[in-house]
Amino acid sequence: MTTPHHPEDFLSSLRLRSAQEEGIFWVDDQRLGVFEPEAARRVSAANWHRFVLHDRLVDMVRRRRSPEVRWSRIRATWLTRLHALATAEQHALLIRRMERVLDARAGQDTDLTLLMQDLALRSLLPVALGGLTAGEAEVVRRDLEMKLARLVSPVPGGVLHQVRHMAVQVRAGLVVRRVLRQRARGRRGREPDLADPFVDLLPELGMDRALDVVTTVLTAIGGPPGTALASLLYEFVRHPEWQRRLEAELGAVDPVEFRTTPTRAAPVTHRFVKEVLRMWSPPLLLVRRSTLGFDLGGTRLEPGQWYLLSPHLIHRDERVWERPDVFDPDRFLPGAPHGPADRASYVPFGWAPKKCVGANLAIVQLMALCHLLCTRYRLTVDRPEAVTMALRFAPVPENFRGRLTLR
Ligand code: HEM
Fold it and tell me: Which is nearest to 232 in space by CA: 353, 391, 371?
């Protein structure tokens, strides 16, 4: 099978075949689709169990292997830092940053999808890499915006665009290296961000691996959070009855409470966010290389072969979900007959042990956007009937023009 040019056609062909072939099949002669929930969980658990971060440059130059650092250690470091950042004060700062971005554009006609991507990037950058000068932040953001534009665009950019992006990428890498180096030498203040713990690990990790680690987080905040915010806005516009339910709930809630007990603080809003992430989980496909051999029913995946995973296809599987194409947050009510069958069938943040480390923060941010839409801004969409959801690397609303005005 060849990959159809259009990502949407490719995805619908995968959905069709997945239904016919019980979720596991060769997509082409190189890639195995693992879209059956339990198999996806098992493959992920085994494949990443001993994942190690190597220093590629040092390996090459010294012609030897650098000391092993296990990925689980990097993740534990991120999770400890994120736990420390999950305070009322830090979440109030995140919400304040979101307000600043939206206030600055209040009343302006704008592409709402791009506005949501900007919102995610500007509000999350200080969590990933804080204390940047305006110029440094601009370079890092530009790099992430160009990466995202390439992933979202239906047509590939020309050679000139690629060369420009490579130049920006190199400059962004230099910014990250400089920040880490200066923090290590005491020439720049330490920050409560996800990069900072790796300053102390520099002697062991080396600069290249530290850069890889920081780049992983930057790439992670540069893609899914913005498209998820845009998808939330899309469903908000399409469902006035849910707007009313959210407004009724959120008028009296302090959004800082979302960080500890989202379901208790705002149960309707939490269900709404969960359903947005079920319908429109980014990224649509994850491409992985197998490190071990797996027997998956009648199919064998050998070490070194590629496989595809997809939260989206699992969330739209009729064997797993009742009426999967219908937006209905109440399916997340406890005991709802059309709810998730088990934990393996709802995976918007991927699979352990590579699961998204920012999942809690992401939920807080999505709920905070609901709060802002119901209390601080009024959303106007120019032609609601023209807005469509395009499936690129992630779901992205198109023809989504309008404005947010302050209430
Ligand atoms: C709605 C927002 C978000 C969504 C839908 C999302 C989704 C995902 C998914 C599907 C993965 C891949 C998991 C896998 O490979 O199995 C991932 C990885 C990751 N995410 Fe998120 N994410 C979001 C927000 C965030 C935020 C806010 C942060 C950071 C503060 C973050 C940090 C990361 C990191 C560092 C990884 C890589 C984990 C690893 O390689 O071990 N994400 N995310």
Answer: 371
